[in-house]
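To whoever is on call:

I kicked off a structure prediction for a single chain this morning and the downstream step that reads the tokens threw a length-mismatch warning. I double-checked the sequence; it's 260 residues and nothing unusual in it as far as I can see. Pasting both halves so you can look.
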Amino acid sequence: MLRFTLLTAAALGWIVSAAPVRAFDESRAMRESQAAIGRTVRDVEFVTSAGQPVRLDAFRGRPVVISMIYTSCAGVCPATTRQLALAVRVARGALGNDGFTVISVGFDTVHDTAQALRDFADTQHVGDAHWLFVSAAPEQIAQLSADTGFWFAPGSGIFDHLVQTTLLDASGRVVLQLYGNEFRPLDLAEPLRKAVVGAPIATSSGPSVLARVRLLCTVFDPRLGRYRTDYSLALSLAIAITTLAGLLVSMSRAWRSAGR
């Protein structure tokens, strides 16, 4: 039992309740994400926002887009969902309304209730008939995260995650990872078209600097029992920029004085 608990915690992103804050390991996250390409995702049992059970295997035979989100996110997850909605509308025009399925998975197993998922979908104006908002048990989230290479790190005072959209082909195999929330609609629509006909799909590059900043700006505060915006990174960047600017001004003045 203890071994199972430890393995589950590791798969969920090294959940250690009384340990010091563990920084998000972007290099490791990207390695694990890219390593998932070509991997067949195992079946997962979800619960939809309507409270109905559904299994991932039920969608075999057509491509599936998986977006891992948490409903109490105030910034990056809503932005990613809105950008994904643009790409989905473009892809629907090319592939039809039932050409593929989109699944937004709430990985916060404590707070991502059916009602929270419904509210999130409504707030983001998602009304696509083939787009599900689902949750799952912790062990199911751990399994799906491992199979898709989705890395998130909850712990003492933090909750960081990779901003990742995963495309599965009709056989349930990972064929594309999109990162950040600023991808173009065609970045997803074109691979989706290729997935339908079984054509080769090129993988994407890592997230932009801006996406990395957004990635690390939302953290889980266990004292409040909810997610909040963490301004420490932005403040650190502002201080660094201000310091560098001051140094450059000082050097410029010293250079002009030496010239005179």
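Update from on-call: the warning came from a stale cache, not from the record. Cleared it. Sanity check on the structure: Helices lie at 2-11, 26-35, 76-95, 114-123, 138-148, 185-197, 209-215, 232-259.
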